Amino acid sequence: xxxxxxxxxxxxxxxxxxxxxxxxxxxxxxxxxxxxxxAVCSRRAERAETIAQEFxxxxxxxxxxxxxxxxQVDLVSIITPPHLHYPTVLAALEAGKHILCEKPMAMxxxxxxxxxxxxxxxxxxxxxxxxxxxxxxxxxxxELIDGGYLGRLRHLTVAVSAAFNITPDSRPWNWWSQKSTxxxxxxxxxxxxIDLLRWWFSEISAVSGQLCTCLPLRKxxxxxxxxxxxxxxxxxxxxxxxxxxxxxxxxxxxxxxPRGHRLEAFGDGGSLILDGQGRLWGGKEGQEQxxxxxxxxxxxALEGIARNMxxxxxxHFARALVAAVRNGTPPTDAATFYDGMKCQQVMDAVSRSWExxxxxxxxxxxxxxx
Length: 370
Hints:
Elements: E1 10-15, H1 19-30, E2 35-41, H2 45-55, E3 59-61, H3 64-67, E4 75-78, H4 85-94, E5 98-101, H5 109-122, E6 126-128, H6 136-146, E7 153-161, H7 185-200, E8 204-212, E9 217-219, E10 226-228, E11 234-241, E12 246-252, E13 260-267, E14 270-274, E15 280-284, E16 291-292, H8 309-327, H9 337-356, E17 360-361
Parallel strand pairs: 1-2, 1-4, 2-3, 4-5, 5-6, 7-12
Antiparallel strand pairs: 7-13, 8-11, 8-17, 9-10, 11-12, 13-14, 14-15, 15-16
Helix pairs in contact: 1-8, 4-5, 5-9, 7-9
């Protein structure tokens, strides 16, 4: 049975003090009138203390296990590098907390499956931070697809074009550069689009992918020392959907003239196109001109929220998640640990495809018993 909140307001504990904690999650949770961020945890005490002072968070921890003992914490948000998700989630489940886990969910399908199974057994609300499901325009696209706007999907292209890894010193060598900590663009952005494609269309049945490292060396922070990069800054994969459609996904962090996030989907009854400015264009069969179907985002007018689709989308997700914890029911449209597990299965298949240089059926990737 789902646990309900213990106090008048939903108490939120944030584990991780990175960029999105400060620019996305904490500001959004502060806009929820029946919630409060009551604790923040980071292994680096100065980072946690800085965020706590900025946002008026009363409790600071360097050990998440100590934070999880707090009765005031109803919901734990885990915003750490991927290799820390599994042990942190298991500890939060043992403490009986509702959980929001950052994407990608885990390091592999075995971890993801164990997290999902234990969360279900504990009867808590469990979500993955795929906030783009709550972006108004992407929700509109979901409604159109479900309503038959495209007809039967024929093919689609996703292109993520960014420049934050464009030179060896544009981003320092850190966990993002290491396989053992879960870095790379497939997990960072690919997980978002695998989740959206599953949500919009159907399950992915097979993939063929490449994971490339365009810049093999990066500088350590505040140093001239160069370190080897082990992860992908460019990922390309083809996918087949169970409904018969085909997809091409291109994810790059090394583009000199980046074009943002774009998607084009074509069916036997029409087309839907998301451009680099986040606008949605659509056309039905026989219609010559595309129609602007963009749904305005009211979060763009909120003070303290960055004008970026991720933090703005998280505002809507935060409200839905807080309401879900209050009511004791899973939030509608949110990605659960089940969705995170299915996404991890696809990512593991892309990795195997590149290692073995072949098409991989998703059914080949199965969790082992733990």
